[in-house]
Amino acid sequence: MEKYIELSNLMFPNINKTVEDLEKLYPKRSVEGAVTRFAPSPTGFLHTGALFTSLVNKKIASQTNGVFYLRIEDTDKKREVEGSVSLLTAEMKRFGITTDEGVISDTEEVGNYGPYTQSKREEIYKICAKYLVANGLAYPCFCTSEMLNSTRQIQEKNKQIPGYYGIYARCRNISVDEMISRIKSGEKYIVRLKSSGNHLKKVSFVDLIRGKIEIAENDQDIVLIKSDELPTYHFAHVCDDHFMRTTHVMRGEEWIPSVPIHIELFEKMGFELPKFAHFPTIMKLDGVASKRKLSKRKDKEAAVSYFLESGYPTDAVLEYLLSVINSDFEIWRAKNPDLNIFDFNVRLEKMNSSGALFDMLKLNDISKEYISKLTSYELLDNILIWSKEFNNEVYELLNKDLKYSLKIFGIERDNTKKIRKDLIKYEDVMPNFFYFFNNKFEEDLSNGYNFDINDKITTSVITEVLNKYLEIYNHLDDKDSWFNKVKIIAENLGFCTDMKQYKLSPESYIGSTADVASIIRISITNRKNTPDIYSIMQVLGESEVKNRINKGILKLK
RNA sequence: GGCCCCUUGGUCAAGCGGUUAAGACGUAGCCCUCUCAAGGCUGAAUCAGGAGUUCAAUUCUCCUAGGGGUCACCA
Hints:
Largest sheet: 4 strands, mixed
Number of strands: 13
Strand content: 5-15%
Strand order of the largest sheet: 1-2-3-4
Distance between the termini: 102 Å
Radius of gyration: 33 Å
Shape: elongated
Helix content: 40-55%
């Protein structure tokens, strides 16, 4: 016993605080709700799966009046990407994933359980490691990575479980005296757990999503403190979640296999075990039959920045995520179309435990629906905000004449139940509405008109329609009289004005009223699918409408 | 390969021993219609396979298969 204490003092000469001191410094919280956290590594960007993890962690805390905090796990200095933390916090904020505590920017944090950045918690980990060494539960390991590699090769050759355990854990059997003298002589070492687990026995724990899970006990003498003096994930997780008083550890399912390590660590430290929940992975179909994790390199939708850049409303993305993973969200949404997404109660036990495929089509539908509910004011506002950041051309165009822009978005939107759903994301504005801007329209026209309706509608028919239309066009007409005039043109030129009739014998006519309308639509917008032509003309104004029709006639000659 | 997790239509997903096996997206058709849409209606399409338990199995148990994850001084 004495020897272990001597060893621990030798290994951690500058550590004077004890685990008891930490217990006092970070007392049990008085909140009765769940204490949850989101603990990403600063490796560059917010992953879509991570957005989901943070959403659920936040929800579980807020639903129970608990605490949700952000911790940065930066113990791997090699993988760290500069600027990640500010990007991460900014992106979370954009999606409304606000925290009660923890890191809030790359320089600031709030709360009494910090620091919330692991690299600043070195002393805490060392206090804990020293405790373990002093009690003979951890030891210094002098093995070099070459030695480790060669034993791994031997193990693989002999088809044995790889790793540092049993007879392969050679440093665990070195006498304490020898450890002390080797350290004194300046030999380099790391700190390992002295595992007492048995691989043939099982540990079980209750996963809040999956129920009881049984796995073999950990028997590996895993690394606690690396040669850079920072802890490994496992050790940091146990120390942090204990002293930050996390009650619910909720993370991706890739952590399930290492839970036995964590359980052993919690027990050796004498810490109470938190509750665990492991989320399924969001997958993507790769080829025909095989699935894989969303990957940043292959899938644009793996990074939440993609949704931001293309202008998906952030709530639509969250809504999609919830609908993918939580069974009754869509039913709730149907019943409560106007409630905020954060009013939905997430229930872990209702969460699906199998990995879901990311379905862009479904996201698009949700997003379309979301945008269709906005008023023209809200839409313009959102697009202005989006374009200012991501598409300057759109911003300039819309901002030049706000009244005009508002009119564009008002078409078939305000005061109507028949709202169009042309926009999936804000990025779609220009492809859909370019023709409201003369220079954009001209640009589009440089590839020619696309009057491709049917074989009987030749250039001369089109010219005739346009000429007639110009004759009768009156900008002051209301919608009904305007359409009546269109019908008259159609009738005079041999088009069928009765759709039913036309469907019965299309061969007896050049086309239908619909085709006449198409001709007018194309001459004004060069598109076959647009909102109501009458409304478009009203927004464009009389002279521009005449101008465009004249231009069409000229170009066709 | 060992261990772990998962498996209801094309996708997401209700279901928790007896159901005509919800719903959404997508898809096909029809209706509405003065254009483009929007909307409405209808249809096609699912319990991975095999044993067992049971009067009864999508539901419980076991096996097989498939998919995914994990086996670092990375998280």
